[in-house]
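With this grant's support, we have settled on a layout for protein records. One resulting record is reproduced below.
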Amino acid sequence: MSNENINVALIGNPNVGKTSVFNQLTGLNQQVGNYPGITVEKKIGFCKLPNNIKANILDLPGTYSLNASSIDENVVIELLLNKNDKLYPDVALVVTDVENLKRNLLLFTQIKDLEIPTILVINMADRMEQKGITLNIPFLEEQLKTKIALVSSRKGFGIAELKKLITTYKTISSEPCLNASVIDTEYFDSLRKAFPNQLLYKLWLVITQDVNFLNLERKEIQSSFTKSHSDLKRLQQKETIKRYQFINEVLKEGLQVNTAKARDFRSKLDRVLTHKVWGYAIFFAILFIIFQSIFEWSQLPMDLIDASFATLSTWASNHLPEGVFTSLLAEGIIPGIGGILIFIPQIAFLFLFISILEESGYMSRVVFLMDKIMRKFGLSGKSVVPLISGTACAIPAIMATRNIENWKERLITILVTPFTTCSARLPVYAIIISLVIPNNYVLGFLNLQGLTLMLLYLLGFGMAILSAYILNKTMKIKGKTFFVVEMPNYKLPLLKNVVINVVEKTKAFVFGAGKIILAISIVLWFLASYGPGKNFNEADTILRSRTENQQLDETTLNNKIDAYKLENSYIGIMGKSIEPVISPLGYDWKIGIAIISSFAAREVFVGTLATIYSVGGSDNEETIKNKMAAEIHPTTGNKIFNFASGISLLLFYAFAMQCASTLAITRKETNSWKWPLSQLLFMSGFAYIIALIAFQLLK
């Protein structure tokens, strides 16, 4: 029995089901990170194969060919050329879609030229009968010099056979199925003579692509075999033509399509979903249902989580030994973490709906539908993907702009994407909406809170579009692109893929935010529990002497003492110093501290208030929502979270750049501090002005 550990690279065009194959092979045994030095997402999974072989499965970014036009595609080439990379594949699985085999095989023939053992995985085989497709597998294997795995990642069949096939990778031919020298015989002969120990196609990629190649000096190759840009493009086009000629000849006998037997539903549905009127109506109806559901379905689990953490905080305070650690735990850590975990149901539902839309193939129709609108504002249909992805998180959304070839369109998309309402804003929106918007129904079935949430999402998207229009008119960057989007087949969302996506995204959100919240909760607890001078250290004596004639019961007196100490603590002093700036917006110093701390991550806002109110002497048994609802302004006697201040806060968070990580990724993607600092100043300034106007009009 073997104890071998091998690397398996999953490669393929976008929308061929590559990620579904990855999920079938690895299940939940996955890790997500970034490639060294860049922010392209790297997904690695692990699985056990027959014969006790362990495999590291690397899901590479989708690419149409090895003629890279984006950073994502460049990652694929970098890995396949660098044998010193620890993730260099022992075997490559090129995943294809049975309905688009001709286009998919272009990439396959290029991978084969790198002489890496390569298995052709033909996915969506369950659709062959419906589409009238038959394959001559033995003929295809012979012509393509490979082994073929016929699978359906949706239904799970063929996966066991694929695992067995991977274990035989040493016996799979690494011989190219097309000689690279057909591109230009004379040129490639001279290249072979100059570098006899190197693969011709690797040399060709080094000459034509902006990649690192560790075994040879790139300058040495290019100085000897340099060609003009137009000549290289001409040769690349010739390469593509030669490859498709070969593929066409192979598929003449290897693939047969009997259209008479096909039962195609796709074209009929496309005519409705991409209709110039009904398409938009259906899209907005889907959005409406999503936001109604987020509030309706998540209310019960949210209340349960909120009450559980309030009870846990009280239990810790009453049953653990008195001291600094118990105080930190009961008043800092538990309320702070509870302030984010309460929103797991809403965030999970949001990711659930996004996953279903992507898995079903509908999201590509939305991209196509929105292209005409986007172009009027200086964007393209491809910009819709980052803007919609921004509803989860602006960071991967900004990274997704790499698929936009035109620099101006890409830069504008990067700059406006943070306006899209991300899931980190959802906790702030949810708690404020529940406090200031009544839980009433319009027309008997439209939840007013759900409508408000949808309006905030539309407001963020609208502001992104308006900003894009202004930037397009003011930026003096020329460029023109053509919009191309692939329309994948409709399919029922695969439950396994949806569950994995929801679990992974929710887990990443909770643990990513949890680390920040835990650290900030500890700092806030310290700043709120200690303070300088007489007013803090002698608060008990001062308050008792002031209230000796008021005949207060001990509980009320203790709450007043705690509130007085909080105002004179380090955090109270800091909050009071910024209160003059934020009071015109309807906020007190506690909200001010929450706004500042939430610059680390927007979702910290609720956790910060939970910590402050817990230290401030409120009954721990109260839920976060109840504590916020009961907060009274000491001067006016009005509730802090009223309609005017609530709307002001909602608008502030709709527009403000309250995310240090987004600024960092903008700096990374634009390679300049000019753009992220411009984002910070404009978005924060605009948010302040809009929040100020809203409060002053509504108070």
Q: What stands out?
A: Residues 278-474 form one domain. Confidence is low (pLDDT under 50) at residues 213-217. The chain has three domains: 5-257, 278-474, 516-698. The radius of gyration is 30 Å.
